Amino acid sequence: MKLLIDSSSIPQLLRHPLLKSACKSGPLKEKLHSIYFDTPDLALVRVQIALRLRQNGEHWIQTVKGGGKVEEGLHQRSEWEVPVTGNLPDLDKLLESPWRSFFTPDIQNRLVPIFFTDFWRTTWLLELPNGLIELALDVGEIKAKNKHVPICEVELELKSGVPESLFDLARELRKSITLQPEDRSKAGRGYMLYSAYSDVKKIQ
Q1: What does the alpha-carbon distance between residue 48 and residue 44 come to, in Å, rounded to a whole number?
Q2: Which of 8, 138, 144, 186 is most solvent-facing, going by the fewest CB within 10 Å?
């Protein structure tokens, strides 16, 4: 679940009692740099696929996402990720993904960086009555074509338990903090920044 938060409300979030009373681990703070790839004519976004390489320290992870649905900020989609070496897609490992039939030689040869994200992520693992949830605060920016837009959002990821626990936690946080459900992913916002192409809204 993605929730927008105003930067002025971050101190309230950091002081929230749940981050102490229910915290199983954290906070952990890390800098994340991501590169999103597509073809110049945006062949991936046309079929609701996102291809991302993310750097965390010295490690790179290649992620492919696709399909799924979004409702009231709750994102449900298929995701496949593998470790890679360096900041370019590993084409052999793309062929191991559930979307291997799409990554033809023609598609692979035309992949280029489309946009980037750079942000600090602070995470807490919360043990709640109906689920184990990772709460992440992301603050940074999305960059494309010499343009940029801010990232300032809270992500709630269900690690175990029932999906309703995400809504329960969101409701509890919103009693004292202004949070708005966000149906657009970082990828969706990156594509919108990159181009006015009408199908960018399909990537959530």
Answers
A1: 6
A2: 8
